[in-house]
Amino acid sequence: MQVDRADMAEAAAADMAHVLVFPIPAQGHLNSFLHFSTGLLRAGLHVTFLHTVHNLRRLGAAAREAAAASPRLRFLSVPDGLPENDPRDAGGIPRLLEGLHTTGGPAYRDLLASLRRAGGTADGFPPVTCVVADGVMPFAWAIAEELGVPAIAYRTVSACSVLAYLSVPKLIELGELPFPEGGNLDEPIRGVPGMEGFLRRRDLPVQCRSLTDTYQDPLLETVVAATVQSRKARALMLNTTASLERASLAHLAREMRDVFAVGPLHAMSPAPAAATSLWRHDDGCLAWLDGQAERSVVYISLGSLTVISHEQFTEFLHGLVAVGYPFLWVLRPDMLGVSQGAALKEAVAAAGEGRSCVVPWVPQRDVLRHRAVGCFLTHAGWNSTVEGVVEGVPMVCWPFFVDQQINSRFVGAVWRNGLDMKDVCERDVVEGTVRVAMESSEVRRTARSLAEQVERDVGDGGSSALEFKRLVSFIRELSSTSAAEPDLSSE
Ligand code: UDX
To answer: Where are the domains of the chain?
Structure first.
């Protein structure tokens, strides 16, 4: 067999290709980046996974074990700039992004400069040849390029939400933003391409609602600016698939240097979630599910950042009890504040003996694929959305913030694999929507066929699998042109 020169060049570059991945330190982003890293490792590349100091300490043994199991993976960290006792919750995201930029940025620059030197590290890793940074941290790819390392932006959210953020300047120009004071949130939005037929004001990223002529929402401003700047990255990578988001991807492709739709990555990856899970899984819930009838359980999780009031908790609880199915409910320790303990007891008592399982954190992927789960009441965070889609589980969406409002619109009005109860948290609505999700054969059929389509996308020869291969080749090509700096440290 003849090995041609191009193959040999690619093999050599493959050995040397070393990607530094840098997610923001939020659970959904960490999971998504770990699944991506698993794909890179499988393709033969080296991966340095950059955590924050706070999270790497919090992950402790789980991260060490994952790195020990894979000789081409290591975890390093930079500070996030926040005091140790900061809650690092949803309300603090602008502060976190600022801290990452101002304190994490210089540390990242120094680290990357040292990792770029040939022989710069003692653990035998080759120099870093490419950076894949979270698409909401433009400083990370700007610094990489300044140091001569090509950089790709990875947005872990839906293509439709990225397109919506990118369209914000145009929505302002068209007068569709800011919304008139007291205006009807059901009014259609025409300025996001491809979504003219179904997008309403209430479906735009929720920060759009707080925008006024005199007030600029800092989180919206940051995310829009990052989205606009991703045009400068070598490519934009998204954890989605053409069959779910063809139109949005086509619009984005016109705006970016290149776009890769490689998801849902978790469906291609057996990655142990424990390596990035900030909470400890309660595996007892799987034993509880084992004892329940087929498709009889409502699974409720609102992700890693949502906080709810006691009133909202009470409405959810009454709605769930009224609909009458057993439920598995993830109530994180920081979700309800001081009333958490009482709420837990209240939920268990209201459901009746053995009819509920309320835990702080579950292995969500295993839960969603369990035969006992009949529907998923979710905040429609993008990871949860695609995890639900992959398992073919009907969804009820109660979006909390950022991209979740638009994701839930796609679930309810475009894919129709579930229902969208955004902006309402009333027991009757919870009861009614959960009942439809549990009992409608049409919703179940649609959810099933969507899952089959996505399974084809990620399977051999499917669109996402081919996109992932194209991305790996792209990274190798970038790596072969990104020569390491000589190590002058010992001179
Ligand atoms: C955040 C934003 O909220 C979300 O809108 C955005 O799309 C990504 O960043 P998060 O709120 O954490 O993410 O939601 P989501 O994207 O759904 O990610 C949550 C992750 O935690 C999922 O991968 C889910 O499987 C996992 N999870 C959740 C668990 O492993 N156990 C649980 O008990 C709950």
So the answer is: 2-159+221-275+462-484, 277-454
pLDDT tens sequence across 155-214: 999 999 999 999 999 999 999 999 999 999 999 999 999 999 999 999 999 999 999 988
Q: What is the CA radius of gyration of the chain?
A: 23
Q: Strands of 64-104 (E only): list them.
A: 73-78
Distances in whole angstroms, Cα of residue 245 to Cα of each of 41, 203, 410, 415, 457: 27, 16, 9, 10, 12
Any idea which architecture 2-159+221-275+462-484 has in CATH? 3-Layer(aba) Sandwich (3.40)
Which residue spans within 135-208 are E strands per DSSP? 151-155
State how far the Cα of 285 lies from the Cα of 119, in Å rounded to an integer: 47
Pocket test for ligand 1, best of 302, 304, 387 (most atoms within 8 A of CB): 304
- 20 phi, psi to nearest 5 deg: -95, 120
Domains 2-159+221-275+462-484 and 277-454 share a fold: yes
Q: Is 29 a catalytic residue?
A: yes
Residue 301 in contact with ligand 1 by CB distance below 6 A: yes
Superfamily of chain region 277-454: Glycogen Phosphorylase B; (3.40.50.2000)
Per-residue pLDDT of 369-393, as tens digits, reads 999 999 999 999 999 999 999 999 9
Write the CA distances from 157 to 206, 253, 384, 393, 419, integer angstroms: 15, 16, 11, 20, 20
Query: Rounded to an integer, what is the distance from CA 208 to the centroid of its chain?
Result: 20
Residue with tokens 């992004």: 97
pTM above 0.85, yes or no: yes
Give the number of C-alpha atoms closer than 13 A to the C-alpha of residue 46, restricted to the C-beta side: 21
Please pick, among 51, 80, 134, 217, the residue that the annotation labels catalytic: 134
CA 415 – CA 440 distance, rounded (Å): 15
What would the two tokens of residue 469 be? 């291969």
